[in-house]
Amino acid sequence: MNIIDHPLYHPTWDILDSTKIKSHALCPRKYFWEHMVGWAANHTSVHLVFGSAIHKALECLRTKGFTDDIILESFNLFLEEYRKEFSIDEDERLAPKNPDTALKVIVAYSETYKRDNLTVIETEIPGRCYLAKDIIIHFKVDALAYGKDKRYYLLDYKTCSRMSQDWVDQWQTDIQMNMYNYLLQCQFTEKETGHVIVDGICVKKTKGREVELIRVPCKRTPTMVSVWYWNMMRKVDEIRLDMEDFLKCTEEQTVLTSFPMREVSCMNYGSLCPYHGFCSDWANPLVLLDEIPDGFKEKRWDPRKREEGKTVVKVGVVNEEKEDE
Ligand code: SF4
Prior knowledge:
This protein is 38% helix and 22% strand. By secondary structure, it is an alpha/beta fold. Among the domains are: 12-43 and 230-301, no CATH class; 44-115, no CATH class. The strands form three sheets. Strands 1, 3, 4, 5, 6, 7 and 11 form a seven-stranded mixed beta sheet that branches. The radius of gyration is 21 Å and the shape is globular. The structure holds iron/sulfur cluster. Iron/sulfur cluster (SF4) binds next to helix 2 and helix 9.
């Protein structure tokens, strides 16, 4: 069957980015629920909203400078985003992920990095990374910066609730950070290529020490970027194989034989996967997809949305025909 003829087909099915690839690597069945069926838990995550609002604030700060006026403007941008989801009455309950702490983050970031020898050239850059002519990984870079050492750097902001050496070390093998190093190495000469910088922002409940910042340099040699490249090719193959199997699956089967469960991932970061109830009881979910269960909603992640109205950067083994699309 052709993919677009499948009764459940959604145009996001064959669009990939690092978030989707990580989801499949964690558990192919989780990928199935999130990206094939498109069901997501029906609650608003304060961690996601706070992180995304902080992104907006830091983008303003890094683009316009670290003056008092811009700190205020950045904070207002945070508020505008945060208040779309949470009212002032919820601020105390949501501490430390609330506007009080956000202002501390913005001030601390400004104080710490206003003299960091990096000039931001562009922020929120959407793009497509071509691993092969028909293998495209979509991305959006937080910021491209030029250093006093005449090298280019990519910045990525990450918020967390607990800072540890493990948290710092994870970025060296992270799919997204390795892809960003690949982008730098494709775009610039060896002399011009810097590395990826993860600006970690830890927000904790500890009174008086709610905010901790850490800058993690993520330097990958061309050889280690090649390791990432071949891992990605393999991962994309695995997703495509699951997709091919899925197109052959029917409601009549007793068991869904594509997107296998990776049961060792059911407990991740100390909490149970939101799809655990489905995986525990449904042998072939295809017979049960007509109605969205209580506590869930339809949510589709389409990385192409971030490209709207912007110039899209194309990097890697770019297919000239696709460039004309
Ligand atoms: S409950 Fe376990 S097997 Fe099911 S989707 Fe989540 S991680 Fe995968």
